[in-house]
Specification:
This protein is mainly alpha-helical and about 270 residues long. It has one domain (about 1-265). Helix content is about 60%, strand content about 0%. The chain has 12 helices and no strands. Bound molecules: zinc ion (ZN) (2 copies).
Length: about 270
């Protein structure tokens, strides 16, 4: 439950940011879009809390098999943050390249608008597609599950602040950290911007693994997905890609084609 508690504790700050951005930059908001984002956040948080409760015995069983005894010291805590952020990078990169994972992650990308409330736009299906699996190596290594989930929550909380157009560039911070500028590129579908900047907290992973692109200040970001969905219905937003993926699976002939439909590069539903 620690994940939900950390996010809940920070929610007044999140709401203040949204309130400020809404009042000062009203043009960046569409009420229906923000209401959909809020509904999606609540459904997501509920599903996440339940699934983490159900998964906890598995997490502690994996922790029993741990390779090392890791004492919590400032150094090992920094290590946990670095390792989780590294795993997040690969989770996120895989979420853009594997249809099964994209079917959940697409929800976060399906708004044409970018503001702080976009951070809330999350899928109910993350527990089903197995986002949690990406954190299990940390438990096997020797980090206690509750520590791992705490670090995951901090990473996600940080990412709230990169969903905005009102912060342009942040000087030296841009070299090391994921920033609003880097994340605008990530949400944009302009040529050259798609499937770039997968960072959670540190942008260094994108630079190391060749997926970094700097925001071009002369290029206006066009947000959303290829084959935009024109809906603010949370059910449709959560499941439109599943419908499409399952129809491609049904149409697939043979095992290879079926596997490609499920785990190949995502295709668009319209
Ligand atoms: Zn993404
Ligand atoms: Zn985002």
């Amino acid at each position: 439950m620690s994940v939900e508690l950390i996010l809940l504790a920070l929610s007044p700050i999140f709401l203040l940011c949204i309130g400020y951005e809404f009042i000062k930059h009203r043009a960046l908001y569409d009420i229906k879009d923000s209401m959909a984002n809020t509904a999606l956040a609540l459904i997501h948080q509920g599903a996440d809390a339940l699934s983490l409760l159900a998964l906890m015995p598995l997490f502690y069983w994996l922790f029993e098999l741990r390779l090392f005894e890791i004492e919590l010291t400032p150094l090992t805590i920094v290590g946990a943050f670095l390792l989780q952020d590294f795993l997040y990078y690969w989770f996120h990169r895989a979420s853009h390249h594997v249809h099964w994972l994209w079917a959940a992650h697409v929800v976060h990308h399906s708004s044409r608008i970018m503001n702080f409330s976009t951070a809330f736009r999350q899928s109910v299906m993350y527990p089903v597609v197995g986002m949690w699996m990406f954190w299990t190596p940390m438990m096997l290594l020797g980090f206690e599950p509750k520590v791992v989930l705490m670090v995951v929550a901090c990473n996600l909380a940080f990412q709230f602040f990169v969903h905005t157009e009102i912060i342009k560039k942040l000087g030296w911070i841009e070299y090391v950290f994921n920033t609003p500028s880097h994340h605008r590129v990530h949400h944009a579908i302009n040529p050259g911007y798609i499937d770039r900047n997968f960072a959670g907290v540190l942008i260094i992973w994108d630079k190391m693994f060749g997926t970094f692109v700097e925001e071009d200040s002369n290029k206006v970001c066009k947000y959303g997905i290829i084959g935009q969905i024109e809906s603010n219905n949370p059910i449709k937003i959560n499941f439109h890609q599943w419908r499409h993926m399952l129809s491609t699976v049904r149409a697939a002939k043979g095992t290879k084609a079926t596997l490609r439909a499920l785990f190949g590069y995502p295709t668009s539903s319209n």
